[in-house]
Amino acid sequence: MIRTRFAPSPTGPLHLGHAYSAILAHDFAKARGGEFVVRIEDIDKSRARSEWENKIFDDLEWLGLTWSAPVLRQSKRDAAYEFAINKLWADGLLYPCNCSRRDIKESAMAPHGEGKTNYGPDGIIYPGICRQEKYSNQRPQDSALRLDMARAAINCSTIQDQNIEIDGSRNNNNIINTAQFIESVGDVVLSRKSKEVAYHLAVVVDDEAQSISHVVRGSDLKSSTDIHVLLQNLLGYTSPWYLHHKLIRDSAGKRLAKRDDAKSISKFREQGCSPADIRTLVGL
Ligand code: GLU
Fold first, then answer.
1. Is 205's C-beta closer than 6 angstroms to any atom of ligand 1?
2. How many angstroms separate the alpha carbon of residue 205 from the centre of ligand 1?
3. Is the domain 77-247 a CATH 3.40.50.620 member?
4. How far is the CA of 216 from the centre of ligand 1 (A)?
5. 7 CA to middle of ligand 1, Å?
6. What is the CATH code of the structural domain delimited by 1-76+249-284?
7. Tens of pLDDT along 128-185?
8. Which of 2, 116, 149, 222 sits in a 20 to 30 Å window from 212, CA-based?
9. How far, in Å, CA of 231 to CA of 211, rounded?
10. Sequence ranges of the domains in the chain
11. How far apart are the first and last CA of the chain?
12. pTM for the full model?
């Protein structure tokens, strides 16, 4: 069964880029007799707003998209995230970290001398300050938890490339070079000091809970995909296939952002555009 999802964060209006992503995911599933579902990614409680959520549903309906119930809401999923974190902790794959952004920046710059710092999907690659040979069995309550990538890679020695092309074709035999992968992402945070779950873990746990077979999303998230596939392996999930689409850009070539509502769907609606016009505008 093909199942795709659209997973917006209700922190601003949907713009043309979101419409493109939602339409592609919807059409990919429907054209293959599958299902399309929606997930509200509201883990960032300080920024998520229910007004935005209502507008998102309204825009999706106006675009002519239909989705299967129920809508999953990340703010209601703490127990599921906690379960996954506990498993990774029990497997000895997480370690506590109390570094500030500043600690990380200073340490990351130090060995290179020339201000050269390496960046991964989450910003500066963590230089391993809190990583240790052995961790205590007691899980601390007030620290962030990072994934020890080198240990994770021992538990999951091959990482399959799950990327597919927009026409659905794929290369079944691609294996990710684990050493290179570890170096390019570092020990990512999975649970924050505030106990809030991090994006990488939430998205993986939720894609599993919603039985997503194909993740259709923007190419800005491509660098996170191998982290997600690694986590799926560690948690014993079956990985979905990943289809990363082009990003919709403004006339200056900049990726559309939520704060810039010039290209928001509601603006186009106000100007009298039809859903078919939106499809044309994004090249569908
Ligand atoms: N919530 C994310 C966003 O709005 C999407 C996450 C995903 O598709 O994996 O950018």
1. no
2. 14
3. yes
4. 10
5. 5
6. 3.40.50.620
7. 999 988 877 888 889 999 999 999 988 888 888 899 987 778 776 688 888 888 989 9
8. 149
9. 16
10. 1-76+249-284, 77-247
11. 25
12. 0.94
